[in-house]
Write a structure and sequence with these properties.
The protein is an alpha/beta fold. The chain has helices spanning 42-45, 80-93, 107-119, 121-126, 155-162, 184-193, 260-270, 321-330, 336-350; strands spanning 2-3, 8-17, 20-30, 33-38, 49-52, 57-60, 62-67, 69-70, 73-74, 96-104, 127-133, 165-166, 169-170, 172-177, 197-200, 217-218, 248-252, 275-278, 290-294, 297-301, 305-308, 314-317, 367-370, 376-380.
Amino acid sequence: MVHHERDYAIQHALVYTDGALVPDATVVVQQALITYVGRHDESLCRDLKQFDAKGALVGPGLVDMHLHGSGGFDSTRGNIRENLEGLALFLEKKGITAFQLAVVMDLDLLAQIRNALDKSPFLASHMLGVYVEGPFIAFEKKGGILPSGIRAYDRAYLDAILSIRCGAKPLVTTMTIAPELPHSEELSNILEEHNIVVAYGHSDCSLQDLKPRGKHHLTHLFNAMSSIDHKRPGLAAMPFVSSFSHATYELVCDGVHVHPSVIDLTIHTLGTERMCLISDAMGLAGTGPGEGLYLGKRMYSTGKSCYYSDSDTLIGSATLITESAKMLYQKGLLDKQSFFRVASENPLRVLSQTDRGFIREGYKADLVMLSDAMDVQEVFKAV
């Protein structure tokens, strides 16, 4: 059940806070902000609606920083505002209380998304921004991106993207670029000046051609990028190399995008401090096997992943991070602390979001209550 309460207390919870698990704790929320975390104090709870967790785990709501759609909703057709509000409602039922919407480059679509956010405080409370895959990427690593979504670097076109703003900030919060392409350094500098995350991906870059920067982030590690070849290591080798030991990366863990053994290898080698669990989910995610449209093309879902119907090209996932995080936990690749690290804290840190993602005083009360098996029991969403 999803709760949009603004004033309440959760008692007798196993609370994940600041990297630790605190048993039999109370969380007090007032005006949708966390005001207290600790031992039960009846004086703080007396006039509030109270929820008894009965020992269940309570942590920050999950965050998917790379998601195209789910539940039959996406941004590629119909009324954009209605679709995105429907997407937000669907996701919060799954314990995903915030998301960054991933799209293929389309200026008109960006303007429509901006208008939807301007008119919908509800949507704005869920959606952290827009993640554009392209258009400045390598054609040979396009994956499911159509040729119309790819172009050579063009400063005027970039300025047009940056001119679409929500308040004082660009609507776009993350952009995938191929670092081997001409003018990639100029592009990266401009994006960072506007506080946009530069994500390397859809690239055939050689590792030896990469230049260290203060920040590095990878779009869906291993997918649509040059691989870890022992003679020509590509972009996928970046987070494993000491000179890029600060690089953060996304990982799709549906068992299709990346082989389970490689997921195991990655987590055991790198740990979870820099990992952002993503879904790369399409509109059919969470609806079981079926067929639909994406960018005007027929697609189908197996229930785990999505493909173009005419070519069987893998274009995205049908598995939400609620499911993939639970799967990793059941396999022993995540514990309760790292569950929230990869599915909430790390994505928010990459996006420089500091108002949620922790159970601390002053933070937004986006919370999830989980069973021992890490199934979602209750969701508390600050709106």
